[in-house]
Every structure is written in C-alpha cells, then in structure tokens.
Write the structure tokens for this entry.
Amino acid sequence: MILLGRSLFDLGQNLTPLPHPRDDAQLVQTGIYSLVRHPLYSGVILLAFTYASWQISWVHFIGAIALFIFFDAKVTKEEVWLTEKFPAYANYRTSVKKLIPWIY
C-alpha cells in the first residue's frame, strides 16, 4: 500500500486513468520512479502475490502470475506512447527497471 501511495504522490498531476500520457504531462523520474518505471503496476502485482501467499492458494498465485503477465504486456504498449511523448524516456528505460526494482 505504501508503494501505491508513494507512486500516486510522486506522479502528482501527471496521473491519468487512461494509458496515454496527458497532453500537459511531464516525465517523472524522481521519487519511487527512480527505482521502478511503473510502480503503480508493481504495487498491484505485489498485493496480488501477498494475498496469494496469505491465502496459501494456488488459484490466487496463478491469478497473480496472470496479472503480472497482463501488466507486462500493457507496459510494453504504454512505453511506445511514452517514448513518443518524451524523448528522454529512451534513456530512462535503460537506467531504471520496468516492474521489479534492480531485477526486471
């Protein structure tokens, strides 16, 4: 929950419910976004795996894996739009991991 809250705080006015960046958006590379490019998705995935572990449930664990796969595919598409909108995004992608800090 802290990860999700911090993500929302750091994103600030750039937050949008749509996958496309807002017209007046700025590229956020500070705060939690300096550790992972998509911390909102990371937070949801972490909650799903935590719940599956708490329930000791293979069904929930498989659901968490499916959620990870879904968000990974969604990120791939969104990053095309982010790269088009923000020229600096290409460099950001090379220095910050996508969903799991320092790993992936």
